[in-house]
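Journal club prep — side note

Before the paper discussion, L.F. wants everyone to see what a predicted structure for a comparable chain looks like in token form. Sequence:
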Amino acid sequence: MRKLVVFAALALALVLPANAFAAHESNNKLVFAPVAGSPSPGASGSGVINYIKGVSGEEPDTAWSSAFRFTDLTPDATYSVVVRGRFADAAAFSGICTFTANAAGVGACRSEFLGLQRLAIAQLRLGSETGTPVLQATRQAVIAGPGSITSDGGCREPDQAGATCAAPGQG
């Protein structure tokens, strides 16, 4: 009986820390749509932003990976992907990756970054992270806006066996 109690206590100790991180672990599927007045109203895009691990278990020390793919952009123009909620200021936008669209107006980028408190908005901006918004993905349960952000445990980047959505950085 004593061995059973020790085993149960050990098992509980191993489970509790994992559950402490569960609130932050998520894979997010992003579908971008044009913002009002977009310089590229026919553009579209998709992406994933995935939780990797808690560095210290305290915000904002969480690690994330991301991948995005966009079409129908201005050829040869530079774009930046920004998210709201990095670091200490949850209302500020921060750049996470930059790319130059090819001659067909297609572009993609990937990144790994630290510190994302809550993902409610991601934007594609023309030029730098302070540039003109072109596309947006919005978590509708938090704020109204174009596009969508949904938590989807099956979305992974890079694409892995069993994934329920295609990783946008592929192809």
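L.F.'s comment for the group: The chain is about 10% helix and 40% strand. Keep this in mind when we get to the figures.
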